[in-house]
Amino acid sequence: MILSERAQFDLARRIRGPEGVAIGEAFAFVSGLYFKGKLAYGLTFARPPEPGLELTGSGALVITPTAGLRPAETPITVDALRAFGSVDIAKNEPRYRKPLLQSATALREEIGEDCEVVLLGSIASAKYVDVLTGVFGQRLLFPSEFVGRGDMSRGGLLLRCVRAGQELTYVPVQGAVRHGARPPRLPPIRGILKNW
Fold first, then answer.
1. Phi, psi of 97 (to 5 degrees)
2. pTM (predicted TM-score)
3. Cα–Cα distance, 117 to 110 (Å, whole number)
4. CA dist 15 → 18, 23, 127, 156 (Å)
5. Which of 56, 75, 127, 188 could hold 48 in an S-S bridge, CB 3.0 to 4.6 Å?
6. β-pair type (75-76, 21-22)
C-alpha cells in the first residue's frame, strides 16, 4: 500500500518525495505492532555512548535487508524501500549479510569497548544472531523476557514497557536459552498504539 503511486495518505506522499521519510517510520508502518514496539522502546531507552555519532544517531538502529544497520532516523525513499523488498533476510544471503557485517563492525569501532548492544529483533533465528554475535560477542544482549514470545507478543511487551517507563532485563545472547515455553498472554491495554 505504501508503494502504490495512487496512495495519497501522508506517509505514502512523503516517501515518494525527494526527502523521503525516516526508516523507522516506514518500517513501523509496514511491520505493524512488533516494529512499533521495537522502535518506541529503542527510542525511549537507547543510551548511545555519545549522542549524534555517525553510526549510532539516536541509539536506535534498524537492521535493513540491503544496507546493514542504520539509525532509525535515516531518511529513505520509495526506491530504497523497493530495494529492501528485493532481498531475503537470511544468514546465507550475501546481499543481506555483507552490509550487516560491515556496518556492525564499523559500529563496534565507533562505540568502543564498554558499550553494550541490545538486540530487539528475533533471538530465535540465526539471521540476526549469527552475524551480530560474531561482531559483538558477549556485548550483544537481548531482553530475557523475549524467550518464548512471538513477534506480536514482543511488540506488545515493548510498548507496555515504554508506557510504564520500565526497561526489561538484558542478558548476553551467547550461551543464553533463546527458546522456551510460551509465557502467559499479556493483558489488553486500550489505546496502547496511540500513546507511545
1. -65, -45
2. 0.86
3. 12
4. 8, 10, 27, 27
5. 56
6. antiparallel
User: Could you say which DSSP state residue 138 is in?
Assistant: G
What radius of gyration, in Å, describes the C-alpha atoms of the chain?
Answer: 17
Each residue of 31-48: pLDDT tens digit?
878 899 999 999 999 988
Residue 22 C-alpha cell reads as: 525516516
- 114: CB partners within 8 A, 6+ apart: 49
Residue owning grid cell 535487508:
65
Q: How big is the CA angle at 135 (ends 131 and 137), to the nearest 5 degrees?
A: 105
H/E/C letters for each residue in 13-80? Answer: HHHHCCCCEEHHHHHHHHHCHHHHHHHHHHHHHCCCCCCCCCCCCCCCEEECCCCCEEECCCEECHHH
Q: Is residue 31 within 8 Å of 110, Cβ to Cβ?
A: no
State phi, psi for 117 to the nearest 5 degrees: -120, 125
- What is residue 141's three-state secondary structure? strand
Cα gap 9→25, rounded to integer Å: 14
- Judged against a pLDDT cut of 60, whether residue 196 lies above it is answered with no
Q: CA 133 to CA 139: how far, in whole Å?
A: 8
**Cα–Cα distance measured from residue 124 to residue 146, given in angstroms and rounded to the nearest whole number:** 9
Task: Tell which residue, 122, 135, 128, has the closest CA to residue 178.
Answer: 122
> Distance between CA 134 and CA 123 in Å, rounded?
14
